[in-house]
Amino acid sequence: MKGNEMEELAHLNVEGIPKELDLILAIIINDDRLYRDLTLKENIDWHLFLELAMHHRVFPLVYSRLFKQNHGLLPSFVMESLERSYKRNTFHMLHLSAEMEKINEMFLDNGIKSLFLKGPILAKELYGDLSLRTSGDIDLLIHIEDIAKADRLLVSFGYKQDEYIHSLLNDWKWRHHHFTYYHEAFGTKVEVHWRLNPAPSNEPAFHELWQRKQRSTTHQASRLFFLGNEDLFFFLVTHGARHGWSRLRWLADIHQIVEKGLNWTKVELLLRKHKGKKIAGQALILSAVLFQTDVPKDAQMFITRKANQLAAQALFYLRNKVNLHSGKVPRDVAKYHALHLFSLMSYQQKIAYIFMMLHPLYSDLETLPLPRKLHFLYYPLRPFLWTWRKTRNITKYKNMEVK
């Protein structure tokens, strides 16, 4: 690593991050000196501390570390709240794990190959303990040709599709990347992916990922598979970057997989092929600065000036406790996120993104319904339909103001 790049990494400006978040990080990384300094010398807002631990989905790690250290420096209500959340999450993860194995067996028995992406399998394989990671749902990847069969099986199993994707000219295949299902009786959500990320992502094909898969050694189901280590690293950095690293849980995953060990030659080849080197650098820098991850010498090739810039941009999400999964993201945050996502793209992805904007949307069909055989006309008509919708929205807004 070049000296100036190392210096930039060491001096990544983390000012503005709440001291309560600093305390959370100190607990997770076992920085006893910083932990004591913050709890004894700083005026910690303990309600904000709990709120941030929940927001970043790292409360299992926080509770586990505190339980082992037993310093007794935190208010009793904080430990009690963390303990309740920890226990609820443990039961939830056990439930997800059992459901994951059932779905996997059902799919394999019906000829569907599936790779599990996150959830219980990640908790076991990266943390060695089901209780140390949170997960809201079960994420799995299958071949796009198996989507219809998977849908029928999940419906027969009591699941209902939670959201329907309106598509024009079959753009759902590349514009989106998963369908969501929900089981009311079980309270379980399942995301069935046919891509790792939505377009314009550049990623390995399913058959490549399946060839490099690894078998879970920690679950009862001997036929349960997940991504190979290097593919998993690729997925984790692209997924976390796409969400602005707005939750520390995703960076904790990066720390764990780096600590576990990777073949960095294979990682470099994978990232070079799929234009993800600067994103990997961003993840490694954030993990090194926030989680004190020891970046191996073979991985330091990813620590570049551009990666540093992207890491600095991502701190915006931590400073402002951004929640991209809330019902309505504030306009200024949405604008910042859109620009950040664009900066993450390679040159080829930016070109593809621009062409995506020119591709017809289902809203064009709603604006001007045309027979299926004339759907090709939506290409030349799209600019006019977009302008028409914008004009109508502005007029509607002004009329509301007048009233």
Would you mind describing this structure in some detail?
It comes from Cytobacillus purgationiresistens. This is Renal dipeptidase. InterPro entries: NT_sf, NTP_transf_5. There is one protein chain. With 403 residues, the protein is mainly alpha-helical. Helix content is 58%, strand content 6%. A hairpin with a 4-residue loop joins strand 4 (178-183) and strand 5. Helix 2 (19-28) packs antiparallel against helix 3 (32-41) and helix 12 crosses helix 14 (277-291). Mean pLDDT is 88; it is low at 394-403.
Key phrases:
403 residues; mainly alpha; Beta Polymerase, domain 2; 5-stranded mixed β-sheet; two-stranded antiparallel sheet
Number of strands: 7
- Work out the radius of gyration: 23 Å
Strand percentage lies at 5-15%
The coarse silhouette is: globular
First-to-last CA distance? 63 Å
Stretches with pLDDT under 50, minimum 5 residues: 394-403
Broad structural category: mainly alpha
- Strand arrangement within the widest β-sheet reads 1-2-5-4-3
CATH level 1 name of the domain at 99-227: Alpha Beta
Largest sheet: 5 strands, mixed
Mean pLDDT: 88
Total count of helical runs of at least 4 residues: 19
Organism: Cytobacillus purgationiresistens
Protein name: Renal dipeptidase
InterPro entries: NT_sf, NTP_transf_5
Set out the fold topology.
Layout: H1 3-10, H2 19-28, H3 32-41, H4 46-55, H5 59-69, H6 76-109, E1 115-116, H7 120-127, E2 138-141, H8 147-156, E3 160-161, H9 172-175, E4 178-183, E5 188-193, H10 206-211, E6 214-215, E7 225-226, H11 229-242, H12 248-260, H13 264-273, H14 277-291, H15 305-319, H16 331-344, H17 347-358, H18 362-367, H19 378-402
Parallel strand pairs: 2-5
Antiparallel strand pairs: 1-2, 3-4, 4-5, 6-7
Helix pairs in contact: 2-3, 2-4, 5-6, 11-12, 11-13, 11-14, 12-14, 14-15
